[in-house]
Amino acid sequence: MRGSRTLAAVLSSTLLAAVSLAPDKLGAQQAPAPAVVVAPAAIMDLRETADFTGRIVAVQKVDIRARVSGFLEKVNFTEGQKVIAGSVLYEVEDGTYRAAVQEIQGSIEAAEASRELAVLERDRAQRLISSNTVAQATVDTANAQVKKAEADIVRLKGSKQAAELNLSYTRIVAPFDGIVGLSAVDVGGLVGPDSGSLVTLTRLDPISVQFPVATSILLDYRERSVRGEVPAGGDVEITLPNGMTYPKRGVINFVASDVSQGTDTITVRAELPNPDSLLLDGTLVRVTFEQTEKQEVLAVPQQAIQRDQQGAFVMVVGADSKVELRRVDVARSSRGQAVIAKGLKEGEQVITEGVGKVRPGVTVDAAPAAGG
């Protein structure tokens, strides 16, 4: 009986010691503060942008055609070559057209001789009429012959100009600087006005991009611009099909005055420099419109924005490393940043990574984002 009491006393004291030591052990094993990454709410130049799908369009593009008939004697270019305005692309045999010019020139010289003779006859008749040697009808006839000879000369000179123009058309020239395509004819082929296109000449520098803009977007932008909410004007940036951003920017130079009824869009066109011919006619590209003037706004990284049924919020880490849930108004997003219209101040730290590990009121181990 006495042994039982002694065993009970030992067990009791052991349990009391375990209970008294438990709080210290629990405190020693308390979980560490969750690690998070934070970034400051910062003022930055975050101009408004809008993305569209567009197509590259050559500023000038024409089909070169023959204006006179004849056999082709020379092709003076290499397909795909850059040519300058006035370069002779094709030469059509010109023997027939040179002969026509010479023939008309001979007719002009003959007509000029006839005019000189008619002038002599008129002058003689005018001298004789004073002595009543000839009738007035003779003088009138002489005057008419002079006028007829002069008219023949005018007509023949006009014919000569037409013949010289046809002769010039035997040398088919480039009307502007550009790149020639594939030639549809070879030396020896018969060409003429009905032969169709001989080659296509395309001007690639500068070049244009055309893109449709929804009527609602354009009207909204104009209204905001009038209210002073956004600055007027902007640049155009092109992203190529391989994801490359074209290094030169363009300027809008045309906005259509009519709306496409099928798509309810308005065609907008911008012009870009293209000295290296990197942009090719017909290429499908992504067009980004960005305002020209700076627009300083308060923004945080887009990944810091969380949403629930009540709207957008961020987790703010205070100076005491405690987390606070803060409701915010997000005006827009651009280039991975969320523009904050209300709810944050510059410099406040928001959680960008690890937000799923925290809740309001907890203490965290905050580290700045890379580059922050």
Question: Can you offer a commentary on this structure?
Answer:
- The chain is elongated.
- Helix content is 29%, strand content 36%.
- The longest helix has 35 residues, at 95-129.
- Strand 17 (311-317) and strand 18 (323-327) form a beta hairpin.
- The protein folds into four domains: 35-46 and 297-368, Beta Barrel (conserved putative lor/sdh protein from methanococcus maripaludis s2 fold), CATH 2.40.420; 49-58 and 204-291, Elongation Factor Tu (Ef-tu), domain 3, CATH 2.40.30; 62-92 and 170-201, RNA polymerase II/Efflux pump adaptor protein, barrel-sandwich hybrid domain (OB fold (Dihydrolipoamide Acetyltransferase, E2P)); 95-168, Helix Hairpins.
- The protein is α+β, with helices and mostly antiparallel strands and 372 residues long.
- Helix 2 (95-129) runs antiparallel to helix 3.
- Strands 1, 16, 17, 18, 21 and 22 form a six-stranded mixed β-sheet that branches.
Order of helices and strands: HEEEEEEHHEEEEHEEEEEEEEEEEE
Share of β-strand residues: 35-45%
Low-confidence segments = 1-5, 14-28
| Number of domain modules | 4
Oligomerization status of the protein chains: single chain
The best one-word shape is: elongated
In the CATH hierarchy, what is the class of the largest domain? Mainly Beta
N-end to C-end Cα span:
75 Å
Domain Multidrug resistance protein MdtA-like beta-barrel: 206-290
GO molecular function: transmembrane transporter activity
Protein name: Efflux transporter, RND family, MFP subunit
Main location: other
